[in-house]
Design brief:
Elements lengths: L7 E4 L4 H5 L4 H10 L4 E5 L7 E2 L4 E2 L1 H10 L4 E7 L12 H12 L7 E5 L13 H16 L4 E5 L5 H15 L6 E5 L13 H7 L5 E6 L2 E2 L2 E2 L10 H11 L5 E3 L7 H15 L2
Parallel strand pairs: 1-2, 1-12, 2-5, 5-6, 6-7, 7-8, 8-9, 9-12
Antiparallel strand pairs: 3-4, 10-11
Helix pairs in contact: 3-4, 5-6
């Protein structure tokens, strides 16, 4: 069991080695629940038998079966989709499959879809593109509101200041519905665009009410690690900041895939517990 201050879970891409070798997602889920994990993000590309085709489209009907097997788990579905480019719409087939899958996995809670844009590059992130990107996020959020759901956006390869401006502009447009658009906050991802010394200030600036979840992983020499030891991110300091600032959303481990994933996850859980007390 975990002594972590926050609800604890993981992103299913931690299990990619096991899934690719034929281990069933159900058995991995059972092992995670046994270790005290209550929140699971099902990441496109790491859903095993619950996705199909070369683009790994989540299968909503099958995922409803998974939700029934794990009624006490909070799920969200995560897609890689260029949601910040201002070109795709809510009618895109992958987005619709993600929304349907989030609905299938809701387990009596709000359907939750998480998107990350790995395609919109820094050179495309101009002042003039902020409102266009914000309008796109509003459209996608409205599609989730229609099913009583939540949309979370993870920052990745876009400069933080631009990304943050887009999120604020979208929330302004949503008005009193702005709580349906949330941030999936990954401090390690900040190192893709920001200097290491800037990370703690960004963590300090993020409003807890805007955050749906926090991804936790470690990087060394530019590579995400399969363990949660020391590295480019000072996690004890950042976790203390998050706790002091009142963040209460789930913490999801996203360590790199590895054959010894369970030993690595158990070590990470123990370290999180020590950092939370």
């Amino acid at each position: 069991m975990s002594d972590c201050f926050w609800p604890l879970g993981l992103v299913s891409n931690c299990w990619k080695v096991q899934l690719d070798s034929g281990t069933q997602l159900d058995s991995l889920m059972t092992a995670a629940v046994r270790r005290g994990m209550t929140v699971i993000e099902l990441r496109q590309g790491s859903l095993g038998e619950y996705e199909a085709g070369p683009t790994c489209v989540p299968q909503a009907d099958r995922l409803a079966e998974l939700a029934r097997r794990f009624p006490d788990v909070r799920f969200n579905v995560a897609l890689s989709w260029p949601c910040l480019g201002g070109e795709l719409s809510r009618e895109d087939s992958l987005f619709l499959a993600g929304r349907s899958s989030a609905m299938s996995l809701a387990n009596g809670q709000s359907p939750h879809l998480r998107l990350v844009d790995l395609q919109t590059r820094p050179e495309q992130c101009l002042e003039s593109s902020i409102e266009s990107a914000a309008r796109g996020l509003v459209e996608l959020t409205e599609a989730m509101i229609e099913v009583e759901g939540i949309l979370s956006i993870e920052h990745a390869r876009q400069p933080w200041s631009w990304f943050d401006s887009v999120m604020h502009a979208a929330r302004r447009r949503l008005g009193e519905r702005s709580s349906r658009l949330r941030l999936c906050f990954d401090p390690c991802n900040l190192l893709l665009t920001e200097q290491a010394e800037e990370v703690s200030g960004i963590v300090e600036s993020v409003e807890p009410k805007d955050v749906s979840m926090i991804h936790v992983k470690q990087r060394r020499d530019g590579q995400v690690q399969p363990d949660f030891g020391d590295g480019d991110i000072d996690w004890p300091k950042l976790l203390e900041t998050l706790r002091r600032r009142g963040h209460s959303g789930p913490v999801l481990l996203e360590i790199a895939p590895h054959a010894e994933v369970w030993a690595n996850l158990e070590n990470a859980i123990a370290r999180l517990g020590r950092s939370s007390t």
